[in-house]
Amino acid sequence: MAEQLADLRVGLIGAGNIAHVHVAAWKALGARIVVYSVEGAESLAEQYGLEVAPSLDALLAEVEFVDIVTPSPTHKELALAAIAAGKDVICEKPLTLTAADSHEVLAAAEAAGVKVYPAHVVRYFPEYKAAYDAVQGGRIGAVAVARFFRQASSPAGAGWYRDVARSGGVIMDLMVHDLDQAQWLCGKVTSVYAVQNPPTVDGISPVNVSAHVTLTHESGAISLCRATWGVPGTPFRTGFHVAGASGVLKHTSGVDTGFVEELQKEANAAELLIPAAARGESPYLTQLRELAIGLRGGPEPRVLGVDGVAAVDLAEAARLSMESGKTIELNGAVA
Amino acid sequence: MKVAIASFAHTHAGSYAYLLGQMPDVEVLSADPDGAAAPDTGPRALRGAELAEKLGVPYVDSYDELFAWGPDAVVVTSENAGHRALVERAAAVGAHVLCEKPLATEVADGQAMLDACAEAGSILMIAYPVRFAPSYLRLRAMVEAGRLGDVFAVLGTNNGKIPYDARQWFTDATLAGGGALVDHTVHCADLIDGLTDGASAARVYAAANHVLHQDKGVQVETGGLVTITYDNGLLATIDCSWSVPDNGPTWGGVSLQVTGTNGSVEIEPFLPHVGGTDEKGEVFLGVGGNLDESLLATFLDAVRESGPPVPGKTPAVVPQPDGAVGLRTLQIVDAARRSAVSGQPVDL
């Protein structure tokens, strides 16, 4: 594998929060990283020892593939630019903000003979992968009822996240992970019903908001995705409960970690050096390694462009359901 | 005080009979005339005079004898479809009523039961025991005090084993009114009702399926997700599935996660337990206390304080959850049943 990933030349587009996580993973893989960003490229490059491209074209001329970690509304044009330059694309979720745009990106990639891999990193979290493997292995029989939840401190206090046209709102931004999980575990979706409270008014999302989306799958399974942008300070928490004909699988993040800490303040103020092995491998590293191997001609990764498109299709169907107050049927037209 | 137990169809009848039998000031009489016709077999399938003997409560063979006894209060624990007739008879003989959940299988029956009790002046209380769980009482106090801010979303789960081996009527569409949607949606709906001071459901969507327990030839739905939008905007989803495997260490449980503008609280009233392992697998020793005891005490206190029903007069004490809660939660179930068939949300 080390040989397969030798001399990676990654074009990182964007320098926001998630860029730091991706940079750490690419460096662990020994990649050479060229970064281009409208803002923040210089300081990111300085912090991690990266090269800065003066323009998008300059970056595209330098690298073997791009890794798009910019705000969601820019994904489409950046992906299309990379595809036009004949470069493979790794793109943060959501692939784009609308179903039409996602289909357009995928079609362009197919026409150009390049690959698009959406970074649905939850597929690389060990708990979710373990559940997926167990379900695939028949451990709990046919899936009947699955629930997925995800809550985070609301990012919608001030910035662009409140603008649903730019962030996609709580469903496109946060729940899209679980829409992908639901489809991964339970198969193709045939209908979508969605409710959000409080509702989005004039394109502005409430700061504190929950969305509940019920999916009916072709397999006969039903699933619920619940996403909450909680009051600022809300701890990030995710989990699932999957009931099958012969068993149940469940997990909540932060529970059963095997490490419980209860220390009184200032017991030892000296900085602790935690060995890297104590943290385990980052799911982002697992993900980017697998995606890079796919781009280098190795086996296809567990998440493909069509999966990214399908997740956006579901998020869009959820929006249509909320707007109409009706169930949206997916008769192969989308997803 | 004379308390009648009408039918042993519901498994909770045994618990009520036992508890009532322990009360020094309560005389108990039971009847279960339909028990002999039940198709159940096996050690937990006991009905009628045999079960009364095992429970140590006096027994008569017919409802005529039971109601002629002149009970002060009647506990109705028949099949769901039989609730209406027994509640109406109880009201007619001037008794107060504790009725098993759900109130009825059809909204019209439920409304008739409320009317009959109102006319007779009888208390109509619904047996929703989770209302009396310490964790729920604490949650409700926090919600009422505004600790959660404005509550805007709730996730409820009531997953359990399929109530099949001892009482097959639970999976009979006519006698039960449906499957998991009917059996398990109402508990969480009641808990939400208690947190919202009786908010009404405005729109209900349900997805249901039959993937679980197909090996048992069950015709009713065994899995379901019910999403409710209330008239105050509150959003709630209830997972009502019979999704605890037959070999699970406990029957199941209830959870309620309540999210507000100041954070969220999640309760699992049946989670406190001692765990372990024995030769059959995982051990789960519940330590949550007997909620039926609090439920019965609340009902009987109200009966004592109200005195005999006076036709047309509201009882002095109206214990909660009352018939109106029973009807609101039944309306949710009925809308959920219709939505599951049509595939579209149902407006109320």
UniProtKB/TrEMBL annotation, chain A:
GO terms for molecular function: nucleotide binding; oxidoreductase activity. Coiled coil: none annotated. Pfam families: GFO_IDH_MocA, GFO_IDH_MocA_C3. Residues 128-249 form the GFO/IDH/MocA-like oxidoreductase domain. Gene3D superfamilies: Dihydrodipicolinate Reductase, domain 2, NAD(P)-binding Rossmann-like Domain. The keyword Oxidoreductase applies. It comes from the Bacteria. Keywords: Oxidoreductase. Residues 8-119 form the Gfo/Idh/MocA-like oxidoreductase N-terminal domain. This is Gfo/Idh/MocA family oxidoreductase. InterPro entries: Gfo/Idh/MocA-like_OxRdtase_N (IPR000683), Gfo/Idh/MocA_oxidrdct_glycsds (IPR050463), GFO_IDH_MocA-like_dom (IPR055170), NAD(P)-bd_dom_sf (IPR036291).
From TrEMBL, chain B:
It comes from the Bacteria. Pfam families: GFO_IDH_MocA (PF01408), GFO_IDH_MocA_C3 (PF22725). Residues 136-266 form the GFO/IDH/MocA-like oxidoreductase domain. GO terms for molecular function: nucleotide binding. Residues 44-128 form the Gfo/Idh/MocA-like oxidoreductase N-terminal domain. This is Gfo/Idh/MocA family oxidoreductase. It comes from Kribbella albertanoniae.
